[in-house]
């Protein structure tokens, strides 16, 4: 039965945004009083929260699939859809969150830290929000965008001040049980400890945590034994305590050779960039089980050799509790010194402000194809706009074309060498494929009114002053022309009559 899990893959799916609504307000004596379609609700987020009360990832091992709620659809009368229900997933303090490719997204080392692992989709705008002086009655609304869907890897790295390392059955579990309230399983066979144990130690005014990891053996860096798998729990520790068994009955083993093997395995373990290697951290060597007479003699024999190598050596017995008080106060001094140095070296948190639009909003990538180049448009905005477009609505397609043109997509396609009729794809993968024309048009131009307007909502038939003045001048001009024609006819008649009298 699994009781401790420190690595798990979560399959997350955030909520989808709700679609906007297309609606026209209807009142008495005014059946078409303007658009009143509401916006769709945003999809729910999936948030990871560092909780000190959680010590394992066991619950996510049994149920790794987590889904947030979808946003509600917009409704008429300017009613917006309900937001999707977000979910919060508590994780142990010290959990490292990685993406599918193994890159670190966040290190949750402080209690209460929150990280949005899967953001919910954006709700679509209703036609009321899309209305403008030039688009008085939009006949379309925006669709909701899908929420983030994918896998994240949770890896627990225990946050402890001191780590106990050593061979199996060296007495590490007995030591943590003797100096703290932790109650790990203790037995007289190797690899009794199958998962890290944590304990809290009070030494004077200093309180610190101590971790016991499964035992290391020679070849652990090559995958033998259990210890190397759990050495990531030692990465955050301030000090290391090498627990050496002075009463072992195994042939070919002694405290000095055991220490050399453990140091070799610690040296082979790669720590993350920026952290101190395990072998360079403050270290204490503990000679355990001196309650056995032969073990005490062996401890007194090897102690000078260990001190000559620069180690601070303490002799203890977890059975009689001899030397435990001196050990705890020695560790408290190391921890307190490290905490003081950390506070003094700490720099104030920097707030990074990235102005909106500082980064390029899209890019055009040219890809070779069987029938010519393919021009792929990548960027958050174009991809989101495509998700928001109802391609069954010609007016919505025209609105998408206008947005892309204002963003500068056409100019960038020209620079990339695109020609009329070229294949353009928006987004990764299959995306949305269309044949590009420099002037994007839609069937909306076939409407009797300009795009975004409705002649039924514009009942104002009064002529403007300019129209009345122009019509007046046209009328006066027509009268002047008519008078001129009559006058020309009279002159012609008189001339004809005069010619007749002369004859």
UniProtKB/TrEMBL annotation:
Region named Disordered: 452-485
Record's keyword terms, sorted: Cytoplasm, GTP-binding, Hydrolase, Magnesium, Metal-binding, Nucleotide-binding
Cofactor(s) needed: Mg(2+)
InterPro entries tied to this protein: G_OBG (IPR031167), GTP-bd (IPR006073), GTP-bd_Obg/CgtA (IPR014100), GTP-bd_prot_GTP1/OBG_C_sf (IPR036346), GTP1-OBG_CS (IPR006074), GTP1_OBG_dom (IPR006169), GTP1_OBG_dom_sf (IPR036726), OBG_GTPase (IPR045086)
Gene3D superfamilies in alphabetical order: GTP-binding protein OBG, C-terminal domain (3.30.300.350), GTP1/OBG domain (2.70.210.12), P-loop containing nucleotide triphosphate hydrolases (3.40.50.300)
Domain of life: Bacteria
UniProt-recorded Gene Ontology molecular function terms: GTP binding; GTPase activity; magnesium ion binding
Residues annotated for Mg(2+) binding in this entry: 173, 193
Intracellular or extracellular location(s): Cytoplasm
Residues of the Obg domain: 2-159
All copies of domain OCT, residue ranges: 354-438
Biased composition annotated in UniProt, kind: Basic and acidic residues: 453-485
EC number(s) stated in the UniProt entry for this protein: 3.6.5.-
Main location: cytoplasm
Cellular component GO terms held in the UniProt record: cytoplasm
Residues annotated for GTP binding in this entry: 166-173, 191-195, 212-215, 288-291, 317-319
Gene Ontology biological process terms, A to Z: ribosome biogenesis
Domain OBG-type G, chain residue ranges per copy: 160-336
Quaternary structure, from the entry: Monomer.
NCBIfam families, per database record: Obg_CgtA (TIGR02729), Obg_CgtA_exten (TIGR03595), PRK12296.1 (NF008954), PRK12297.1 (NF008955), PRK12299.1 (NF008956)
Sequence similarity: Belongs to the TRAFAC class OBG-HflX-like GTPase superfamily. OBG GTPase family.
Functional description taken from the UniProt entry: An essential GTPase which binds GTP, GDP and possibly (p)ppGpp with moderate affinity, with high nucleotide exchange rates and a fairly low GTP hydrolysis rate. Plays a role in control of the cell cycle, stress response, ribosome biogenesis and in those bacteria that undergo differentiation, in morphogenesis control.
Name under which the protein is recorded: GTPase Obg
Gene designation: obg
């Amino acid at each position: 039965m699994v009781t401790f899990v420190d690595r798990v893959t979560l399959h997350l799916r955030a909520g989808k945004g709700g679609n906007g609504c297309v609606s026209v307000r209807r009142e008495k004596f005014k059946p078409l009083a303007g658009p009143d379609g509401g916006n769709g609700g945003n999809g729910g987020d999936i948030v990871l929260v560092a909780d000190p009360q959680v010590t394992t990832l066991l619950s996510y091992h049994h149920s790794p699939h987590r889904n947030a709620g979808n946003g509600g659809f917009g409704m008429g009368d300017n009613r917006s859809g309900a937001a999707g229900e977000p979910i919060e997933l508590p994780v142990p303090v010290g959990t490292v969150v990685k993406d599918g490719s193994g890159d670190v997204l966040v290190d949750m080392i402080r209690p209460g830290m929150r990280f949005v692992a899967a953001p919910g989709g954006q709700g679509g705008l209703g036609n009321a929000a899309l209305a403008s002086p030039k688009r008085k009655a939009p006949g379309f609304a925006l669709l909701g965008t899908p929420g983030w869907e994918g896998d994240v890897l949770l890896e627990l790295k225990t946050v402890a001040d001191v780590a106990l390392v050593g061979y199996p059955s060296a007495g590490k579990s007995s030591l943590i049980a003797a100096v703290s309230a932790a109650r790990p399983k203790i037995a007289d066979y190797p690899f009794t400890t199958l998962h890290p144990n944590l304990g809290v130690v009070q030494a004077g005014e200093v309180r610190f945590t101590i971790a016991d990891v499964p035992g290391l053996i020679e070849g652990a860096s090559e995958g033998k034994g259990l210890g190397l798998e759990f050495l990531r729990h030692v990465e955050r520790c301030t000090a290391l305590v090498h627990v050496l068994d002075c009463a072992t009955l195994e042939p070919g083993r002694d405290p000095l050779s055991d220490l050399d093997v453990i140091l070799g395995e610690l040296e082979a373990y790669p720590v993350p960039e920026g952290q101190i290697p395990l072998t360079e951290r403050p270290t204490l060597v503990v000679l355990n089980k001196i309650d056995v007479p032969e073990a005490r003699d062996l401890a007194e024999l090897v102690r000078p050799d260990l001190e000559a190598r620069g180690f601070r050596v303490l002799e203890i017995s977890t059975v009689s509790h001899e030397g435990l008080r001196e050990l705890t106060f020695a560790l408290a001094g190391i921890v307190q010194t490290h905490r003081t140095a950390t506070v003094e070296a700490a720099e104030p948190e920097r707030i990074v402000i990235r102005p909106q639009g500082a980064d390029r909003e899209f890019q055009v990538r040219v890809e070779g194809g069987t029938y010519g180049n393919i021009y792929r448009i990548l960027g958050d905005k174009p991809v989101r706009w495509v998700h928001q477009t109802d391609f069954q609505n010609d007016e919505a397609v025209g609105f998408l074309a206008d947005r892309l043109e204002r963003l500068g997509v056409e100019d960038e396609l020209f620079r990339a060498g695109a020609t009329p009729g070229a294949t353009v794809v928006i987004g990764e993968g299959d995306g949305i494929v269309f044949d590009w024309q420099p002037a994007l048009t839609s069937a909306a131009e076939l409407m009797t009114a300009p795009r975004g307007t409705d002649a039924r909502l514009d009942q104002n038939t009064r002529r403007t002053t300019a129209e009345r003045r122009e019509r007046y001048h046209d009328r006066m001009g027509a009268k002047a022309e008519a008078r001129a024609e009559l006058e020309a006819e009279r002159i012609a008649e008189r001339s004809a009559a005069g010619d007749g009298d002369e004859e």
